[in-house]
């Protein structure tokens, strides 16, 4: 389809071809968008560059959200290359895997702060740079999980972070609404990715969702990509501040 014809956007958080961000980037490119991928560091770069080429040789730059100068540089590159962008996908999260198991109460202050910084504040700090690149409006999408709403085993501090991320989506939607920039989140069902492998008993959670979700299936990155197309395209021009579930319906029964 040509749903995204003429649109340019940046997708942050592709680590490999199993990443949710990759499912979204591919769906956007297949629908006619020009897509730039950013990567965290050189180790990830090696895997992302061939993927960027697969999308049609599109600009990719480093962006480590731990480092404000790196975010500055990434958006400066986009400004030079394109001048403006129409959409942005934030698919970034991090927490110490030792604390994604066992009890939430044992979360260390250090990991609490790092988790919130990388998984929550990064969306705000990225939008501080992206706002001026979205002069004709734009659509911003982040990724969240049901563990923000209900306690999921082992999700722990990441659940607290996702709750804060979803609240950030609402506050950013208000701040940026006057500029016709929309901010939404997709709440994806469990998918086996690099980040997910850090979560204790992930295989069990995956199976539990599959058996109990109304659609009796696991969520795929292609499904998330297709739902992202709606939120990133003009089809959703009346939608902002929303958390949309792509989870085979699990949130209705969980
Ligand atoms: O079941 C799942 N996999 C779900 C994931 C269900 C619902 C939501 N999500 C969310 C995640 O919490 C995250 O926000 O989707 C988003 C994307 O995660 P993913 O696709 O599951 O995981 P992955 O392919 O590992 O991509 C996340 C990437 C990092 O990968 P690794 O695993 O190497 O940490 O986020 C990036 C990094 O590439 N990332 C950063 N990027 C820039 N700066 C940083 C950073 N400091 N830290 C992590």
From TrEMBL:
Pfam families: adh_short_C2. Gene3D superfamilies: Enoyl acyl carrier protein reductase, NAD(P)-binding Rossmann-like Domain. It is found in: Cell inner membrane. It catalyses: a 2,3-saturated acyl-[ACP] + NAD(+) = a (2E)-enoyl-[ACP] + NADH + H(+). GO terms for cellular component: plasma membrane. NAD(+) binds at residues 13, 19-20, 40, 64-65, 92, 162, 191-195. Keywords: Fatty acid biosynthesis, Fatty acid metabolism, Lipid biosynthesis, Lipid metabolism, NAD, Oxidoreductase. The keyword Iron-sulfur does not apply. One of its GO terms (molecular function) is enoyl-[acyl-carrier-protein] reductase (NADH) activity. The active site is at 145 (proton acceptor), 155 (proton acceptor). Its EC number is 1.3.1.9. Pathway: Lipid metabolism; fatty acid biosynthesis. PANTHER family: ENOYL-[ACYL-CARRIER-PROTEIN] REDUCTASE (PTHR43159), ENOYL-[ACYL-CARRIER-PROTEIN] REDUCTASE [NADH], CHLOROPLASTIC (PTHR43159:SF2). Belongs to the short-chain dehydrogenases/reductases (SDR) family. FabI subfamily. This is Enoyl-[acyl-carrier-protein] reductase [NADH]. It comes from Pararhizobium mangrovi.
